[in-house]
Amino acid sequence: MACGGRLAPGEGAPAPEAGTAGVDAADAGPCPDGVVIPLAGECSSDGWCWTNPSPQGGDLYAVFGSGPTDLWSVGLGGTVLHGDGHVWSLAGLVGNGDTLRGGWADSPCDAWAVGDGGTVAHWNGTSWSASVVATVPLTAAWGSSANDVWAAGSYGTVLHWTGSSWSTVVTGSATDIDGLWGSSSEDVWAVGEEGTILHWDGSAWSPSSSGTGTQLDAVWGSAGNDVWAVGVGGTALHWDGTDWSSVATGSGYELTSVWGTAADDVWAISASGTAIHWGGSGWGAASLPSPAPLMGLWGTPAATWAVGGWDGTILNFEGGSWSVVSLGNTASFNAAWGFGPDDLWAVGSNIMHYDGTGWTAVVASTTEAVGDGSGTTANTDTMNGIWGAAPDDVWAVGTDGDALHWDGTSWTYSNIGTESTGKDAQAIWGTASNDIWAVTNCHAGETPDVVHWDGTSWTVTVLDASVTENYLYAVWTDAPDDVWAVGGGGAIVHFDGATWSSVVAGNGAMPTLFSLWGSGPNDVWAAGAAGTVLHWDGTAWASQASAGHDLNDVWGLGSGDIWLVSANGVILHGDGTSWTPSNSGAATNLVGLWGSRTSGLWAVGAGGTALHNAVAQ
User: Fold this and answer.
1) What CATH number is attached to the domain comprising 58?
2) Do strands 492-495 and 383-390 pair parallel, antiparallel, or not at all (unpaired)?
3) Do 195 and 135 belong together in one domain?
4) Domain membership flag for residue 36
5) Separation between Cα atoms, residue 522 and residue 516, nearest integer Å
6) Is residue 465 in some structural domain?
7) Is the residue at 127 inside a domain?
8) What's the CA dihedral at 429, 430, 434, 435 to 10 degrees?
9) Are residues 311 and 375 in the same domain?
């Protein structure tokens, strides 16, 4: 079998298209049964707390609210955030993991969000609840009152809420609808694919000629005779009460959302991280503090908010300028290692350190650190694994066998010896500062390498084809004569102090193994694709209960206290006989684990996600 690679699990979120806007700029009165606004803080019900980014790391697709102190933003995997005008907090994940793409709020005790899978979620002042009310994805929502709410999505689907139930309303269109807005219950606009514009007059939907075949993503107006629709290629159309006309924007980017406070104060944002402003006579480019793609826009006369990609970007316009509200590193992490609650490292295209209070970029670019940047800051080289013998003796390994070593003061570059063959180091583990192993991938027709550090130099061993011809993704060792490595096709190989041998010959019919962890020579765990979990008891490898997800990493806090992570924020806990979901509060791809009884458990992954559970249970 030729050396096989890994296709990393994706996050499953297609490019967003909708932006929504509310009409009520004043906070409503108290809810009949009281209101429980989510408090500031980013911890889940099972104790997983966001330490990076802040307030969370999932892409956001819409922002809406009922007033300046009652703001909502929704996004990846059902992520819901609440803002009080100053601080944004994680309200949780709503629904069954479907991404939410639009929303509208009537008051602090009445808000709606819609998304993939036909999901409609409702906030009643105390909690969010979700149900599936359509057979197609929903992208936009808008309402004129608590008893008049619209939702729209694919294939011309439009739903109407009258206070007790949702019903489908025929539009006569089969094109996707991406945006909704209205000035009243008898004046509602819907825009979408192929330049589609539909109008509701209180009794029926009818087409309105847009004069374009370009996709329209969003619609908003200051009045019934002052409405804007924006979309692909910087398209902006204006409705004056009689006709739609095209207005030059000077932008060539896809405009994803539009919102304003008045006829002469309108904003539009783009998927390319730009913004333009209408001052009454023309559109002009605005300066933004972040180039992150933007998807949602809403505000009040007091402040305007924009949200989007790059793992939960939140921007605020107040006092005449835009500022970044979301904070932290959003470069993905591949692995973590630590020595205590105030000494943790996470690596990827950079190297970050956590000191117990916050994260610091110690290496801003691993590409630059290994000398491959050619004077640029492009992060093309990544560190895939990290292990340390002591706080002043830590190794990180990655692309082309590049290695960085921390001596307590700085990171210095070396290579494990695979640069000339272009084999990437995938993982690293050791027993002491002079007994460290790294494993690599391989190219077609080749075999992977196992590389050993003896405290002075790295020694490369090219495995014989009889041992394995597959990628090796993980390595774990308990002693110099007890080293395990796993990889493609379910391959398991072992080193007894003298030679490497095949224990399980990987083949295309067996799930790939991506991770290893052990508490001792008779308690070693491997996890990988298709929910595969294996256990070594000192005599044989045995299959455990399936975890039901492609597994990126395994870690234990002791024998029978095993943790697993996967895509979409999945964290599982069990003993091999069964696995119980642990609410991570995240929807991002989790790829690495590290922890101890005294330090708690850490999970890291896409978009700089770093979650900590002080008392993992």
Assistant:
1) 2.130.10.10
2) unpaired
3) yes
4) no
5) 13
6) yes
7) yes
8) -100
9) no
Domain check: are 146 and 270 in the same one? Answer: yes
- Does residue 279 share a domain with residue 146? yes
Tokens matching residue 248: 């030059």
Query: With b meaning 16 or more CB within 10 Å and e meaning fewer, what string describes 414-443?
Result: bbbbbeeeebbbbbbbbeeeebbbbbbbbe
Domain encompassing residue 280: 49-324
Cβ-defined contacts of 428-432 (< 8 Å, 24+): 428/385, 428/386, 428/387, 428/395, 428/396, 428/397, 428/475, 429/385, 429/387, 429/475, 429/476, 429/477, 429/516, 430/387, 430/389, 430/395, 430/477, 431/477, 431/478, 431/479, 431/480, 432/389
448 against 2, higher pLDDT: 448
**In what order do the strands lie in the sheet containing 523-528?**
513-520, 523-528, 533-536, 541-543
Burial (CB count <10 Å: 0-12, 13-18, 19+), residue 49: middle
Lookup: tokens for 190: 């819907």
pLDDT band (50, 70, 90) for residue 10 = very low
Contact indicator for 480, 431 with CB cutoff of 8 Å: yes
The owner of tokens 């009520």 is: 24
Task: For residues 287 and 322, give the distance between their C-alpha atoms in angstroms, rounded to a whole number.
Answer: 8
Same domain, yes or no, for 75 and 194? yes
User: 304 and 415, same structural domain?
Assistant: no
> 291 preceded by cis ω (within 30°)?
no
Phi then psi for residue 368, to 5 deg, are -65, -40
Task: Give the predicted TM-score (pTM) of the model.
Answer: 0.86
Here the tokens at position 393 are 């003796």
Distance of alpha carbon 488 from the chain centroid: 26
**Cα Rg of the chain, angstroms:** 27
Which amino acid appears at position 176 of this protein? Answer: D
Q: Residue 487: is it exposed, middle or buried by C-beta count within 10 angstroms (0-12/13-18/19+)?
A: buried
Cα distances (angstroms) measured from residue 311 to each of 60, 99, 114, 257:
7, 13, 20, 18
Same-domain check for residues 313 and 359: no
What is the tens place of the pLDDT at every residue in 527-549? 999 999 999 999 999 999 999 99
Start-to-end Cα distance in the chain = 41
**Residues 296, 371 share a domain:** no
Q: Determine which helix (DSSP H) or strand (DSSP E) holds 369, and give its type and residue range.
A: helix 366-369
Token representation of residue 234: 């910087």
The yes-or-no verdict on residue 507 having pLDDT over 80 is no
Q: How many domains does the chain have?
A: 2
In a domain, 552, yes or no: yes
